[in-house]
């Protein structure tokens, strides 16, 4: 994989804004031949901004419900309107407490991934890499490497392809 986009956000508000814009781009992907769900994987250390990104992404999909991280329940599902007429499902996963990718398989992850109406976002996706498809949107969030642009709330977001 190679990085295709790097973004530096100054705070959580900017991280959410970037994620909202990315969600809008995802909604504009009109691929009638799409045969599976859209998958977004988020990687990064504790406190890197994965949940903040997930909240912004959900807002960008038009989800009004409060987004809470599914750390203890592994998954939360939200319905939303896609392309005005088609109801879609946004599934927010958190693999932080997962001991084995098989726990996700037991949840029906592969079946959910096969439905083109679904959008799946997985925090800590690096913990279940073995069961992820070859192609998906992989974001790595981290503190900026440059001391000049570094603040307590800034984040470096890299999209890998």
Q: How many domains would you count in the coordinates? A: 1
Low-pLDDT runs: none
Shape: globular
CATH fold call = Rossmann fold
- How big is the Rg? 15 Å
Instruction: Please name the fourth-level CATH homologous superfamily.
Output: P-loop containing nucleotide triphosphate hydrolases
Helical fraction equals 10-25%
Q: Looking at the chains present, what oligomeric state does this protein adopt?
A: single chain
Class from helix and strand fractions = alpha/beta
Order of helices and strands: EHEHEEHHEEE
Largest sheet: 7 strands, mixed
Count the helices. How many? 4
CATH architecture type: 3-Layer(aba) Sandwich
Strand order of the largest sheet: 1-7-6-2-5-4-3
CATH top level class name: Alpha Beta
How does this model look, in words?
It contains four helices and seven strands. The chain has 161 residues and is α/β, with parallel strands linked by helices. The protein has one domain: 3-Layer(aba) Sandwich (Rossmann fold), CATH 3.40.50. The chain has a seven-stranded mixed sheet with strand order 1-7-6-2-5-4-3. Strand 3 (75-82) and strand 4 (86-94) form a beta hairpin. Helix 1 (12-27) crosses helix 2 (50-61). The longest helix has 16 residues, at 12-27.
Short key terms for the protein model shown above:
Rossmann fold, 7 strands, 4 helices, 161 residues, 30% strand, alpha/beta
Architecture blueprint of SSEs:
Layout: E1 3-9, H1 12-27, E2 38-43, H2 50-61, E3 75-82, E4 86-94, H3 102-106, H4 109-114, E5 118-123, E6 137-142, E7 155-160
């Amino acid at each position: 994989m190679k990085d295709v986009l790097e973004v530096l956000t100054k705070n959580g508000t900017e991280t959410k804004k970037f994620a909202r814009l990315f969600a809008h781009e995802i909604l504009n992907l009109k691929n009638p031949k799409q045969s599976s769900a859209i998958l977004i994987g988020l990687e990064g250390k504790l406190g890197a901004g994965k949940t903040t990104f997930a909240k912004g992404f959900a807002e960008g999909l038009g989800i009004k419900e409060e987004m809470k991280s599914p750390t203890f329940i592994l998954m939360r599902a939200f319905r939303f309107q896609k392309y005005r007429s088609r109801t879609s499902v946004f599934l927010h996963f958190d693999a932080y407490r997962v001991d084995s990718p098989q726990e996700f398989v037991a949840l029906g992850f592969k079946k959910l991934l096969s439905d083109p109406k679904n959008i799946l976002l997985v925090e800590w996706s690096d913990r279940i890499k073995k069961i992820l498809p070859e192609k998906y949107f992989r974001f790595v969030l981290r503190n900026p490497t440059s001391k000049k642009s570094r603040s307590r709330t800034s984040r470096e977001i890299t999209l890998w392809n």
